[in-house]
Amino acid sequence: MTTPPILLANALTQINPGLVIWTIVTFVVLLVLLRRFAWGPILSMIEDREVGIRESLEAADRQRAEAQRMIEEHHAALELARKDAAEMVKRAQEEVELARVEALDKAKAEAAELIASARAQIEAEQKKAFSEVKVVAVDLAMAAASKLIEASMDEAQQRRLVQDYLDQLDPASGA
Amino acid sequence: MNLMLQGPPIRARATSLMALLLSLSLLAPTLAAADAPGGPEESEQPTFTEALWTFVLDAPYLPIPWPTETLTRNIPLEDAFGKLEFEVAGINVDMTPTKHTVFLWLSALLCVLLFIPARRKYDKQGVPSSKGANFIEALVLFVRDEMAIANIGRKEGPRYVPFLLTAFFLILFMNLLSLVPYGAAATGNLAVTGALALMTFVMTQIAGMRAHGPVGYWAGLVPSGVPWFLYPIMVPIEIMALFTKPFALTVRLFANMTAGKVVIFSLIGLIFLFESVVVSPISVAFTLFILVLKLFVSFLQAFVFTMLSSLFIGMASHAH
Fold first, then answer.
1. Is any Cβ of chain A less than 8 angstroms from the Cβ of B199?
2. Interchain proximity B161–A48, CB inside 8 Å
């Protein structure tokens, strides 16, 4: 006995309640299983990875900014150091120049002073020598005179005598 | 046989032979239906229409490849699982597994076997270490970002990702299993698609009540700013809208999968209808085209079902 086709076509739209229940049961069991053992772990791993990537990117950004800042700081410090060094060199040069000029002036002054004092000393020595020579000359004249008186010789003799004496003394008188 | 002798040249004959093999493998379970315990009593050849419905409809037996005349053996599922029949409130419910129930379970089994090991394919940094895990992750990310987050929102969306993923893959595998010889389209059954749409309906209501509170959700079904005298019209319309959504889901999936089956059967059936092997190259070419199209439709319908589910959940949780 064959079933009329129209009844079979009707079967296409017939709903088997058993299959509905099986589908619901299967779906719910599968959902629970996969949620617990597949989707949950996979999704959480994906999320962890995404968070990790986002954090690494942020950290990288932060570090780059930090590095940039440090480079700029270093540049500024270097510039400052260079300027300081230049200034120091300049100041040192100025100081050296100043010291040189000062030393030169001092040396010149000292030399002048030395010359002046030498000159004064020479003058003083000269004066002293002159006065000593004068004293000696007076002494000698007086000694000669006394000799003249003692001997009471004629003028010629006296003159010779004085002359002799003077000649005799001559090398010593230069002292 | 004399058809073969006066038939087309060698090459076309080889194609015809392939066509015969393919048509036999696709239709073998159908031809064997005559011997099935649930089938017609007499062992006469089934009519074309009967064969079509055997190809499309659910059955109480499971056809498997067997080296007999019809290349098929029908395993009565009642013998394998026992009769599971009971009465609830006067309605007789037959829970005995059918062909479509078995394919529903096969699809669920595929999901379990494919996705549960996938989580072990991740290394310490949480990066998938195999191509399979990578592919699964691409699909998971697509469902999460393009469906859940895009339609439901960044805050509430991720909560529904497991539901959407389960629905997507269960439907996809049921669709794909219908393309395999001896396979049946479980999604070409209103009971299956209806139950799946019911799951979406339940999820939608839960999402709405979660977002607005049980009272707020039902009160918010009628758009605010509607004059009171329109309520007699608006309330039935909104309640109807509530049920048309899952109804559309049910029928869309069912119709798509059934239509594919009918077209494939009809194309292969042309060979038998004309009783000529000359038709087979055309039949096979078109069947191949339809099969490839169905491969695409399998993905598309799984996507559409899941996409619309996420859209409905999103509408319920935003609303107003």
1. yes
2. no
Rounded to the nearest angstrom, the minimum Cα separation between A53 and chain B is 10
Mean pLDDT in residue range B149-157: 86
What is the nearest CA distance from B197 to chain A, expressed in angstroms?
10
Is A2 within a domain? no
**Across the interface, which of A8, A16, A46 has its CB nearest the CB of B53?**
A8
Where are the domains positioned within chain B?
Answer: 78-318
DSSP B60-123: SEEEEE-SSTTSEEEEEHHHHH---EEEETTEEEE----HHHHHHHHHHHHHHHHHTGGGGGB-
Which letter does DSSP use for residue B128 in this model?
B
ipTM of model over 0.95: no
Distances (CA, A) of A19 to A25, A106, B13: 10, 122, 44
CB contact under 8 A, B165 and A11: no
Count up the domains in chain A and report the number: 1
A114 is in which domain, residue-wise? 10-173
Averaged pLDDT of chain B: 82
Place of tokens 């309906």: B201
Give the minimum alpha-carbon distance from B281 to chain A in angstroms, rounded to a whole number. 29
Over residues B248-261, the pLDDT tens digits come to 999 999 999 999 88
Taking contacts as CB-CB distances below 8 angstroms, the residues of chain B near A40 are 162
Nearest-angstrom CA–CA distance, B39 and B42: 9
> Per-residue pLDDT tens for B2-28?
344 444 455 555 655 655 566 556 665
Mean pLDDT of A36-58: 89
pLDDT by residue (tens digit) across A100-159? 999 999 999 999 999 999 999 999 999 999 888 888 888 888 888 887 777 666 777 777
Residue B38 in contact with partner chain A when CB distance is under 8 A: no
- What are φ and ψ of residue B24, in 5° steps? -65, -45
